[in-house]
Amino acid sequence: MKFDVLVEVRLRAGISDPQGATIEKALPVLGFESVSGVRAGKAFRLTVEAPDIVEGRLVVEDLCRRLLTNPVIEDSIVTLEAQTDPAKASS
Amino acid sequence: MKFDVLVEVRLRAGISDPQGATIEKALPVLGFESVSGVRAGKAFRLTVEAPDIVEGRLVVEDLCRRLLTNPVIEDSIVTLEAQTDPAKASS
Description:
2 copies of one chain form a homodimer. Chain A is of the alpha+beta class.
């Protein structure tokens, strides 16, 4: 069974985020006074093949720890969704 | 009313993704044979203040077009969620 996965990697609270701060400084200039608290992170899309969603999540969480994140400064949010489209599932 | 926003920015289909390709090349070495189709993108977290969720989404989509994405090679997925925690909403 195949799952579409979204991994959101973000800086832990308290870790300085220069990219987010730079975006935030540009907001008033562009007229976005209603936007605040910008934090920049990474997003990975991938496909995992596993017998069930629990196994799939374990594999992706292991991947996060070992490759996608730096656990000292980052944490990750993993979202899995079963592929339902048969054309996609067979590819 | 305040909304917590997640903006996922990803490369359009067909645009080459060297970061994703590099991660994918490392997967078999690390024993992740069940993972494939890695695409790397960006994730932004922010807060928007708006009268309702429709207005909030319009502001964030405008922000995506003008600042967060390069519409030639990227598209964005915007998710809004109303802040429910009163301590958070008043901050």
